[in-house]
Amino acid sequence: QVQLVESGGGLVQTGGSLRLSCAASGYIFSNNAMGWYRQAPGNQRELVARVTYGGNTNYADSVKGRFTISRDSAKNTVYLQMNSLKPEDTGVYYCNIEWRRLGNSFEYWGQGTQVTVSS
User: Which phi and psi angles does 51 have, rounded to 5°?
Assistant: First the structure.
């Protein structure tokens, strides 16, 4: 089974920074994509940023220029550097890993870490 363990959430003031980390363990296919999603109260879970094994990235428009996703594939770890945080960035941030193999899709989620940005 695959496990994802997130860390780095917390409370920060508007304009501050946080760095989230997520380490994946277990059987992991190397050609995977890792990403961060977030869910605010009353809202659906949304993609924040995603990075493929080859290093291709995509971001939600709301975080472009402020957040940076990176990965250490040797350690199956993904990071999210969040700068210039805004109150609307508040939510539970979930780590995700996914891949396709032999026609099957595999997707796993972390337990989530709370990020709260105070105004």
Answer: -135, 135
62 three-class SS: helix
Three-state secondary structure of the chain: CCEEEEECCEEEECCCCEEEEEEEECCCCCCCEEEEEEECCCCCCEEEEEEECCCCEEECHHHCCCEEEEEEHHHCEEEEEECCCCHHHCEEEEEEEEEEECCEEEEEECCCEEEEEEC
Using alpha carbons, select from 6, 33, 4, 24 the residue that is nearest to residue 92: 6
Write the pLDDT tens digit of every residue in 72-107. 999 999 999 999 999 999 999 999 999 999 999 999
The closest of 106, 86, 105, 77 to 38, measured between CA atoms, is: 86
Pairwise CA distance, residues 118 & 109, whole Å: 27
